[in-house]
Amino acid sequence: MLKEASNFLVEVIQENLARDMKEQVLMIDRRFSELQKQITQFLQQEGVERSRQEYREGATRLRQWLERAEQIVTSRLDCTYTELKEYVQQLDVSIKELYYRIKPLVPK
Fold first, then answer.
1. DSSP assignment, residue 13?
2. How confident is the model at residue 35 (pLDDT cuts 50, 70, 90)?
3. Under the phi-then-psi rule, with left for phi > 0, alpha for psi from -120 to 50, and beta for the rest, what region is 106?
């Protein structure tokens, strides 16, 4: 739109003013292009940083789950029905927790 307006004015004003106007429009256009490029780079970096943060958070959650699962698996059990039943329930809860944490990460 700016170029269209400047082109119209260039046609209807004096030659020396038209030359100055062309230079100003070109300078504005260059500045706008540079700004647009910087904004694009910034948005890409922001997206990369967000992905890195999500990765770190996911890795931390997985590490915590693995630590809890290791505690469950390596815990000493008395071979009684109640102890075994509780152990199986802990394993089941742990597996379900992992499934619900990983499910959103798996592409459909």
1. S
2. very high
3. beta
> Can you give the length of the chain in residues?
108
Cα separation, 22 vs 43, in Å, equals 31
- 1 is written with which tokens? 């739109």
Mean pLDDT, rounded, for 17-46: 87
- Give, in order, the Cα–Cα distances in Å from 77 to each of 37, 71, 94, 103: 62, 12, 17, 31
**64-85 pLDDT, tens digit each:** 888 988 888 888 877 888 888 8
Give 9: exposed, middle or buried? Use CB within 10 Å, 0-12, 13-18, 19+: middle
